[in-house]
């Protein structure tokens, strides 16, 4: 029997479970893989309708060799094992060895840059997609940016991503892991470094209150648009709607600058992991669309034009799960629009991805305002 075409690696976490749920809905056979088979079976058993899915559980050690053996004979890897700067290279290199497309849900700008620099050309040579950062935190905002850029003559993007809810354990570990890294915005096609403690009061479309936003590790947007001839400048900020949470993150960022950055790398990782676990040690409850909302707002400007696109949505982790499942579903049927290092919008089309999110009731029709 041939292997199933898609591997979900790290399915024992919150997001992996959602990817499995949407793969079932799209009728895509998959392998649920990770280091702890019993844990995967436990989590998989809680996926609604999983008894109708064509899937199997495989326990695998986290090494390039073991992952290559697992991936050989498959077509797509959806990777949820992070922090990715720490654990991602084995999975990417295994995909290259096995001739498999790679996507992940990372939130680490330094990992995005590393993927492009270290493996982008090799994936392109093989006609394979390398698409880290396929997730609500980046892709939905990228959709809004591309809708703005349908108007010619706009070269500057000011991006805001907010959501209501609590990050998962894995997301929290990732958030804290990037706080010791340098992170960047784009100015005249060159990376410029943010101040480590940068923050801003931002105007939130649809409400009278402002919100506190942070550069959130720089985000993927400056990386995706750096080689886009339409765009010269990109700044992205984000966070959660809960001001108290954001104030806490800002305070921890300042503490990291003074207390943790001077430590050796191994001590940094240990301290950051402990700090993250104190914020979120378990799995949050399943998202409720009446409570868990998302907002992606993009102001695009140029010398003689302005555009503003807002996408209101719900359940940002469900958006991530669907985006991951759809990219796998699409890759099984047709090659990507761009091989090598590419964002989800570059690989599949921003209007196509918007339609998928809308068809599952996860985002509203975008609100676009043009100013001549």
Tell me briefly what this model is.
Helices cover 41% and strands 23% of the residues. The protein is of the alpha/beta class and 372 residues long. The strands form 4 sheets. It has a 7-stranded parallel sheet, sandwiched between helices. The protein has a 5-stranded mixed sheet with strand order 12-7-13-14-16.
Sequence-ordered SSE layout with sheet pairings:
Elements: E1 6-9, H1 14-25, E2 30-34, H2 37-44, E3 55-59, H3 64-71, E4 76-79, H4 84-98, E5 101-104, H5 109-125, E6 129-131, H6 136-148, E7 156-163, H7 169-177, E8 184-187, E9 190-193, E10 200-203, E11 210-213, H8 221-225, E12 233-240, H9 243-260, H10 265-279, E13 293-302, E14 305-314, H11 316-331, E15 340-341, H12 344-348, H13 350-359, E16 367-371
């Amino acid at each position: 029997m041939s292997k199933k075409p898609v591997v979900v690696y790290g399915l024992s976490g919150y997001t992996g479970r959602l990817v499995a749920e949407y793969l079932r809905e799209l009728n895509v056979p998959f392998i649920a893989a990770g280091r702890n088979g019993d844990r995967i079976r436990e989590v998989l058993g809680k996926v609604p309708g999983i008894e109708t899915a064509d899937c199997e559980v495989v326990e695998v050690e986290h090494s390039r060799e073991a992952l290559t053996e697992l991936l050989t004979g498959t077509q797509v890897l959806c990777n949820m094992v992070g922090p990715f700067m720490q654990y991602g290279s084995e999975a990417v290199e295994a995909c290259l060895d096995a001739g498999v497309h790679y996507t992940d849900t990372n939130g680490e700008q330094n990992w995005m840059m590393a993927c492009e620099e270290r493996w982008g050309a090799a994936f392109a040579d093989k006609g394979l997609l390398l698409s880290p950062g396929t997730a609500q935190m980046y892709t939905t905002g990228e959709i809004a940016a591309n809708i703005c850029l349908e108007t010619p003559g706009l070269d500057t993007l000011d991006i805001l991503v907010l959501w209501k809810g609590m990050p998962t354990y894995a997301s929290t570990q990732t958030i804290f892991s990037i706080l010791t890294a340098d992170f960047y915005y784009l100015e005249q096609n060159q990376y410029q470094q943010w101040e480590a403690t940068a923050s801003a009061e931002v105007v939130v479309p649809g409400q009278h209150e402002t919100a506190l936003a942070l550069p959130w590790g720089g985000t993927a947007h400056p990386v995706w648009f750096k080689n886009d001839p339409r765009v010269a400048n990109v700044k992205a900020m984000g966070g959660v709607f809960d001001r108290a949470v954001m104030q806490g993150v800002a305070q921890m960022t300042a503490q990291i600058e003074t207390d943790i950055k001077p430590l050796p790398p191994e001590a940094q990782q240990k301290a950051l992991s402990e700090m993250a676990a104190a914020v979120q040690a378990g799995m949050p409850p399943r998202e409720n669309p009446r409570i868990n909302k998302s907002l992606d707002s993009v102001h695009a400007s140029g010398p003689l034009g302005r555009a503003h696109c807002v996408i209101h949505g719900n359940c940002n982790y469900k958006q991530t799960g669907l985006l991951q499942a759809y990219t796998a579903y699409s890759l099984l049927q047709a090659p990507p629009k761009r091989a090598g290092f590419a964002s989800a919008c570059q690989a599949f089309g921003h209007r196509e991805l918007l339609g998928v999110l809308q068809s599952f009731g996860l985002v509203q029709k975008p609100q676009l305002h043009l100013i001549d």
